[in-house]
Amino acid sequence: MTSPWPPPEPGVLTIDTAGGMDGRTSGYDKRLSDMRGVYRDATAYAAAVAERGEDHLVYRVEDHRNVNGAGALIIGTSTLQPGRYGDEFAVTRGHLHAKSDRAELYHCLSGRGVMLLETLDGRSRAVPLTPGAAVHVPGHWVHRSVNIGSEPFVTLFCYPADAGQDYALIAEAGGMAQLIVDDGAGGWTTRSNPDHTGYRKGAA
Ligand code: ZN
Q: Ligand 1 mean position to 85 CA, how many Å?
């Protein structure tokens, strides 16, 4: 499907460093109840639910989209709240694009985070992001935001409107290959996830 003719009007947006987007057309919230099975430490997750409640906000996505065809863009913000589950930092669910060759830009607006990136054939990268830093995620990379700080981690993102998201891939693999964890010295480090069984063949 290609973008329609005549084209839509330009989108005019105001985006603030807290993730607010004046001009948004859609968005969604992910709460603790949506994150079941995402964190490796099930006991820590259950304790978080007991303490904060299932409706506790984990992250919010606001976006602007006009048409859906190939060539169109989706532009938005992701605001990931700080948190810890055992020694694992708060994450978004993460995904591979359903059209897996589609790339994405993430530009940090505020907070401190990491973009965790993995290929289906075993490469892994953890890219630190602070305000002003950006990462150009090529196609074929699984990606997830991680909040390693004590404030909300806010990114501006932009990706092709026909990309779609495959969220099942990570769950089927027992989680991503790497975890972003507290290093015990006020920072973060990566640790191999022993539950990771490898990504589904053919997903790329
Ligand atoms: Zn994406």
A: 23
